[in-house]
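Q: Hi! First time doing this. I have a protein sequence and I read that you can turn it into a structure. Is that right? Here it is:
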Amino acid sequence: MKRSELIFGALLVPVDFLMFLVAGMAAYFLRVSPLIVKWKPVLFTLNLPFERYFFLLLAVSVFGVLIFAISGLYKISAQKKLFKEFFQIVIAVSATILVVILYIFFSRELFESRFIVLVAWTFAIIFVSLGRFFVKKLQRYLVGKYNVGTHNVVVIGEDRITKKIIKEIKTNPELGYRIIRHFSDIDINKIKDFIFGEGTHTDEVILASYKYERNDVLEILDFCEEQRIDFKFVPNLFQTLTTNVEMNTLDGVPLIEIKKTPLDGWGKIIKRSMDFIGSLLGLIILSPFFLIFAIFIRLGSEGPIFVKLKRISQRKEFYLYKFRSMVKDAEQMKKDLWQYNERNDGPLFKMKNDPRITKIGKFLRKYRIDELPQLINVLRGEISLIGPRPHQPDEIEKYEKHHKKVLLVKPGMTGMAQISGSSDLPFEEEVKLDTYYIENWSLSKDIYILLKTLVVLLKDRSAC
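A: Yes, that's right. Below is the predicted 3D structure, encoded as structure tokens:
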């Protein structure tokens, strides 16, 4: 861990504390401002003068920082996901305010201004997020511009994943990595000669390919431990599977279960509840727009407003609803167009300037509006808001064994693949992303994907 990373990680503590204070002060002065006083007179200043409020605010700010620490918001990491961190901030600030509300309720001595509590909660989320955003921007600027705290990296590998990692490091220098040497294979003598002979200090060795002999990997690992060099590697299939295990005993005998997904028990209940509430609200809010789109679709070409596409979810067939974006009987025409399929990496079909797409259909596809009726499927429990892409029966027939892992959970309206490249992704890459989601599911990951989808909808047009 670089000293600069430790400094910026530690800097978050006083920044968060200051932002809590600023949020509390802003909420107080907003409440006592003439504009708000005209609407609602101030009644709490007698038993809570500003001096006492300020000392209370100091205590709440310290407590808020402690909650942040418990929530993992001070975990030092080179790469933090923006939406994930924001979600953690919302939870931690809400927990802090909840404790304050409980204290007010049981003490019976403090003010009764719900306005200040609500505004302070909102301001705290905004100010803390902004404070952390500027700290991160400053850190990335110093890393990208002046190489402050950069990690000098040796990369080993020669496959597609290796090239992808190298491209990511070179494209985004603000991530803090600098490749000082790339080795195609594990040649321990050459690697040692380079690290010992090079004037530049090596901070990390990244084994980007898992297609090496076990003894060679152990040798380079031992060398890195001796030289106090960080070692990172891309796991193979078995190593990925064993990250999701559960241990039980049967008559005193330990049994380790390799679980297919953590999406079980309460996780499944919470996910279904989120699907039901989200889809119901979505259908209610979007119903006027559904009517408008229906009129344009009907006027644009002959055929139904909705199309029902046969899909498979967890070995069960169902019909997926979409706004019709193609001419009537488009599915039957696909076999005649298969020779123009631009995807030769799997069983999926994609054709640029597909002649089956109508004029209004191009608009609907461009902004993913054609997929909104899938909220009906979510409400019925056939798919989820988040999950792998819904699968066609004829595609599944062509799936290889490792592809079928994506059939373990309900498909979703959006998922890891959709926020990572959508239809431009190679099929194998899509399967890997969906497999990772299945094996590492969490509620926070679902919320992150949902928020990232909104960003992708505004930027990505690969579906059109």
